[in-house]
Automatic annotation (TrEMBL):
SUPFAM superfamilies: alpha/beta-Hydrolases. This is TEX30 protein. Transmembrane segments: none annotated. PANTHER family: TESTIS DEVELOPMENT PROTEIN PRTD, TESTIS-EXPRESSED PROTEIN 30. Residues 30-209 form the KANL3/Tex30 alpha/beta hydrolase-like domain. InterPro entries: AB_hydrolase_fold (IPR029058), KANL3/Tex30_Abhydrolase (IPR046879), NSL3/Tex30 (IPR026555). Pfam families: Abhydrolase_11. It comes from the Eukaryota.
Length: 224
């Protein structure tokens, strides 16, 4: 697949982004962003983007360094608009995806768009990798307000030993969600998706396979 670097105008600056473009004209895309640390070149994101592109799904990943969730959501929304208006890629729909804080920003955007009047079905779903449901050891305050208002399909991929997303708590939130939803637990993985006794590549392969499988179930992607 082809990788194309772009700069996306955002206020008076630019967001760095990379398109991973499939060989065949894609119908669907995934917009992907990173957690509180790092950037779009975080290994899990690079690996997922390559996997999706090799299966015919366009992937646009971007960097936004701010630690303010509203600012990150605003940047994400800008990237969604940019892709929607792109002349190079005419897509039937996109899925918003993020890792950790990036998935909170994605959830916020999906909720905002679903509550707006301009709901035109461009955004078709949400993929949360290591969703940070609470701060470590602070399980009393759950970051679930956006999740409970979302209507489109949602996939969670979380580690069963994630210190920012206790298994029972996420299952409790998910049971209250009205959207079609699925959780895939990575056994014994922590928030960074590290698992004792497994290589990072091995874990990434499991994550990528689950994301693609879910995308295929939620779109009309051919079975390749």
């Amino acid at each position: 697949h082809l990788q194309v670097k772009v700069k996306i105008p955002f206020g008076n600056k630019y967001l760095d982004a990379v398109f991973s473009v499939p060989e065949k004209k894609p119908t669907y895309g995934v917009i992907l962003t990173h957690g509180a640390g790092g950037d779009m070149n975080f290994p899990h994101l690079v690996s997922l983007a390559a996997c999706l592109a090799s299966h015919g799904v366009l992937c646009l990943r971007f960097t936004c360094k701010g630690l303010n969730i509203a600012y990150r959501a605003k940047a994400f929304k800008t990237v969604v608009e940019y892709l929607k208006l792109s002349d190079d890629h005419k897509l039937s729909g996109v899925f918003l995806a993020g890792r950790s804080m990036g998935s909170r920003a994605a959830a916020s955007v999906v909720r905002q768009l679903s509550q707006g009047d301009d709901d035109d079905d461009f955004v078709q779903g949400l993929i949360c990798l290591s969703y940070p449901l609470h701060r470590p050891k602070l399980q009393s305050k759950l970051r679930d307000e956006d999740l409970l208002l979302i209507r489109c399909p949602v996939l969670f991929v979380s580690g069963s030993a994630d210190e920012m997303c206790e298994k029972q708590l996420l299952e409790g939130v998910v049971s209250k969600m009205k959207a079609p939803k699925k959780i895939h637990w990575i056994d014994k993985a922590n928030h960074g998706m590290a698992v004792k006794g497994r290589t990072a590549d091995d874990v990434m392969e499991e994550i990528n396979a689950q994301v693609f499988l879910w995308l295929r179930e939620n779109t009309e992607l051919e079975h390749k």
